[in-house]
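Tokens for chain A. Residues wanted.
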């Protein structure tokens, strides 16, 4: 009898536990399975508002062509323009930006021999040069750009600075034979003294998928007071820190 009573008590406790368990969600039930399937199908939110473009302090190199458009065009051939710039984006928005930039620029040109220039009439136009030409400029500029899509920027920039064209000939020969001889004592002041320069033009920039790098094209017109009018078109590579 005690054994039968014990079995009856255990059976009732089992029925009680089963009844309580039915008050909770059964993990094997159809309702739970459907809910889990819906959760599995729920879309995962992805952060998509990422420009993938770095802005800030940058260094830029440039190389391209330089052409004189004024009086020098008769004596000086189109040459090479080289540049090294340091700048910083000080305004950065989704569709526009502004930056300041300081550039060191070098121009390299072949020119007519100074006596050939005289024979061609440079004394009449007062545009006689030593022959081959080298120029060195330092220019500060401000650039404004808009972005037509995520990676492509179009801009305009303007700036000013100083240009110098050193004497490449031996100083004594230049003074005695060129200025004192071929030019009749006239030094037109193109070489040695610095010339104020103003420049500006359009820019194109493409931000690569390498977040710190961009490539572009700069087209600038410049005028150096007491020197000449010219233009440069250069390809650029920029690294933003």
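Reply:
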């Amino acid at each position: 009898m005690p054994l039968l009573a014990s079995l009856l008590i255990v059976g009732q406790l089992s029925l009680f536990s089963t009844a309580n368990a039915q008050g909770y969600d059964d993990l094997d039930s159809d309702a739970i399975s459907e809910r889990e399937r819906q959760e599995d199908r729920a879309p995962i939110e992805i952060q998509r508002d990422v420009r993938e473009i770095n802005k800030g302090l940058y260094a830029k190199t440039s190389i391209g062509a330089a052409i004189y458009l004024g009086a020098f065009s008769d004596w000086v051939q189109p040459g090479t323009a080289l540049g090294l710039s340091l700048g910083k984006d000080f305004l950065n928005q989704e569709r526009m930006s502004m930056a300041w930039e300081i550039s060191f620029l070098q121009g390299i040109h072949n020119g007519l021999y100074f006596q050939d220039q005289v024979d061609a009439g440079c004394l009449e136009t007062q545009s006689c040069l030593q022959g081959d030409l080298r120029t060195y400029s330092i220019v500060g500029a401000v650039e404004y750009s808009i972005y037509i899509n995520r990676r492509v920027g179009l801009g305009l920039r303007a700036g000013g600075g100083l240009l110098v064209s050193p004497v490449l000939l031996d100083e004594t020969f230049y003074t005695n034979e060129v200025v004192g001889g071929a030019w009749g004592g006239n030094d037109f002041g193109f070489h040695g003294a610095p010339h104020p320069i103003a420049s500006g033009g359009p820019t194109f920039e493409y931000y690569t998928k390498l977040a710190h790098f961009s490539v572009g094209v700069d087209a600038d017109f410049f005028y150096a007071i007491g020197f000449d009018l010219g233009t440069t078109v250069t390809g650029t590579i920029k690294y933003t820190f």
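The longest strand covers residues 133-147. Residues 2-21 form the longest helix (20 residues).
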